[in-house]
Specification:
The chain has one domain: de novo design (two linked rop proteins) (Up-down Bundle), CATH 1.20.1440.60. 82% of the residues lie in helices and 0% in strands. With 116 residues, the chain is an all-alpha fold. The longest helix is centred in the middle third of the chain and has 27 residues.
């Protein structure tokens, strides 16, 4: 078992990432290919950076990757807000995911602080 597989933040990032990828599939179906691609990459970036950081030798280096993961959660939130404002997705669909992203962002920050 990889170290990151035991981390609750990685599990939460995978869960949110799955939801975001479903939205990316919908964007792709409506021929919004660049948006779908960017959302999919940003969605996977959260869990991938947590996993990559878990392989680091030092806590300081791990914290750097956690910061990248946290930034990706903000990027995803920004995209969801934009998609809702442009009526690409329903705001009612975006809100629960935005809430999950906000919670995940706080969890990543707390976990990063615990490594100090």
């Amino acid at each position: 078992m990889f170290r990151f597989e035991r981390l609750e933040i990685w599990k939460a990032a995978c869960s949110v990432g799955s939801q975001l990828c479903l939205i990316a599939d919908e964007l792709e179906a409506s021929k919004k290919f660049p948006f779908a691609d960017q959302l999919r990459r940003a969605a996977l970036s959260i869990s991938n950076n947590i996993a990559e950081g878990a392989g680091c030798e030092s806590s300081k280096e791990f914290q750097k990757f956690l910061m990248y993961a946290r930034r990706s959660s903000f990027e995803n939130a920004s995209m969801l807000l934009f998609f809702a404002s442009e009526n690409y997705i329903a705001e009612s669909r975006a809100r629960p995911i935005l809430s999950s992203l906000e919670k995940l962002s706080r969890q990543i920050h707390s976990f990063s602080q615990s490594l100090s």
